Structures are given as C-alpha cells and as structure tokens.
C-alpha cells in the first residue's frame, strides 16, 4: 500500500551562498526530495516524525563554480536526513 506524503517548506534559509540561481536551486531541491521520498521506507520513517517545526539541514559543501543544481541536491539530502534521523 502506498502512502501519500505531503511536505511543505515554508522557508528555506541559505546563508553565505551568493550568486546562485534561486529557480534552479528550488527545482533541484524539489526534484531530489521527490526522489528521496519515493524510496521504499520513506513514508514509514516520516510517519515517526509527524509534524516537524523546523529541520536543521546542516552545512552544504560548495566551492568556486558550484552549481545551483548541486547545492539544491545537497540541501534536499540534508533536509531528508534531518527529517528521518
């Protein structure tokens, strides 16, 4: 049986990441979270969490030329880990 997952991110705060394309970053976060949440066991892990007031996504590794896509994937993975640990 498949469970529906609804994830609403009201605010995503990214300090110290100038020059990134916000639309590309947002799309990358959405795509990667969708991929992660579609994995077997994701709905059970999230069911244990319930409603999270906030999630600390931790640090994101960047360097010269890091793309908005790459940052978005890292952000999504960090959020997912924060929700499922």
Q: What is the alpha-carbon Rg in Å?
A: 13 Å
Helix fraction by DSSP (H/I, runs of at least 4): 40-55%
Number of helices: 3
Structural class of the helix and strand makeup? mainly alpha
Q: Note the beta-strand portion.
A: under 5%
Shape descriptor reads elongated
Low confidence ranges:
none
Number of strands: 0
Q: Strand-and-helix sequence, N→C? A: HHH
Roughly how many Å apart are the termini?
A: 23 Å
Task: Give a short account of the largest sheet.
Answer: none
Q: Average pLDDT across residues?
A: 81
What is the element layout, followed by pairings?
Elements: H1 22-37, H2 42-49, H3 68-84
Helix pairs in contact: 1-3
Structural descriptors:
48% helix; 3 helices; elongated
Short description:
This protein is an all-alpha fold. 48% of the residues lie in helices and 0% in strands.
Describe the structure.
This protein has three helices and no strands. It is mainly alpha-helical. Helix 1 runs parallel beside helix 3 (68-84). The longest helix is centred in the last third of the chain and has 17 residues, at 68-84. It is elongated, with a radius of gyration of 13 Å. The model has no long low-confidence stretch (mean pLDDT 81).
